[in-house]
Amino acid sequence: MSATAQEPLNVQLKQQALALARAGLREDALQSVRRDALALLEHTEFPDKRTEQWKYTSLQALTAGHLTRVARGNGASLPAPLATHRLVLINGHYQPALSQLPDSITLTRFDGSRALAAETASDTLRTPFAWLNNATLTDGLQLDIADNTVVDAPVEVLLLATDDAPSHCQTRLRVQLGHHSRATVIERYAATGPVLTNAVTELVAGAGSQLTHYRLQAESPESLHIGTLIIAPGRDSNVHSCQLMQGNVLRRNDVRAIMAESGASLALNGIFVGRGNSHIDNQITVEHRVPHCHSEQLFKGMAGDTAKLVFNGRIHIFEGAKGTNAELSNKNLLLTPGAEVDTKPELEIYNDDVKCSHGTTCGQLDAQSLFYLRSRGIDAAEAKRMLGFGFVNELLGALPDQAVAEWARPWLEQALTEAEPAK
């Protein structure tokens, strides 16, 4: 066995990530951004099972060589659009010929002035995979919506990853709403083949703005996804973000919302469904740094076969953030005896004048409800699907956009069907 193979897994992955980042250094507009991120990456340990936020998630799947090969496949077809206006990226690269945006949105490519500065990145991104994204950045995109602008129709951002061998792609998206503007953005991931998508998305809502955001993840079962979502609501703004996730080889979802402007309101909702031996790890953190902000979190998970779901929701109330109102709820349903859910809600409060609540539940399908449906001539698989739909129906019914709601129901139907154990 080689010396490299004898190294701990997190050391091997860090070496691969550093080699990837160093190989991408070159002189262009993003040179300083990549160098700063590389410096952060060099002083950051990759996680292992002793890392608290990764103790239920192994990176063993990445030993297949995902960090040593860039995805270059081009054989996948584009899924049908969910909106009239769509922005398309394939393996992390912008496709202008396949994209069309309304005149009210300005599209710009990342350069040194638009990417996060080193001091901001070190506080905001935090995870080694987010810094790897910065260190290998080639084609980041920013959508700008001017002050006092209403974008009437939703805009879809399709991020497609495709290859027939273990490989990776890096995607980067920033959405910036001006003051008192309003928009709906559908962030949609699709993938074919054993590709790792390492995605970073930043949502910045200006004062008094309203943003509805969807993160739809329906990649193939053999794919991998490590995502970082940063949300920064402005003063008196309203941000609603809804995430729909289905399991694959490895899915890691790091969400960090920074409430740093008074009067901001944030709603985070999510449905995540594991099937087969898939894995989903949600790490959600909402930081209330200033007074008089409101946040709500409601996530529901369903696991079948030997799938594993992880949910860690954290609310951090900073000193001086009086008048905070924060709620967190995670509810989970085990569809089969072999499935697993590990869930932990957290409150960290440094102020007395706040209103906070948190809770989590985990249970099995109700035997009486299942018996009732079976007694009416409904087979077991269909009865379980009906109860699964009922479990998340309040979230499906609250989706504000018809196109997303129509997409979500067959998506959930497929996910629940695939979660059924082999007979």
Question: What are the key terms here?
Answer:
single chain; alpha/beta; ten-stranded mixed beta sheet; 8 helices; 19 strands; disordered C terminus
Describe the protein in words.
The protein is α/β, with parallel strands linked by helices and 423 residues long. The protein has a domain at 71-364. It is built from eight helices and 19 strands. It has helices spanning 3-6, 9-23, 31-42, 118-124, 128-135, 367-375, 380-397, 402-418; strands at residues 85-90, 93-94, 105-109, 141-145, 155-162, 167-177, 182-192, 195-205, 210-217, 224-233, 238-246, 250-259, 265-274, 279-288, 294-303, 308-317, 324-334, 340-349, 354-364. The strands form two sheets. It has a ten-stranded mixed beta sheet with strand order 2-1-5-7-9-11-13-15-17-19, covered by helices on one side. Strand 1 (85-90) and strand 2 form a beta hairpin. Helix 2 runs antiparallel to helix 3. The radius of gyration is 21 Å and the shape is globular. The chain starts with a helix and ends in a 5-residue tail after the last helix. 44% of the residues are buried. Mean pLDDT is 91; it is low at 419-423.
Short description:
With 423 residues, the protein is an alpha/beta fold. The chain is built from 8 helices and 19 strands. Strand 1 and strand 2 (93-94) form a beta hairpin.
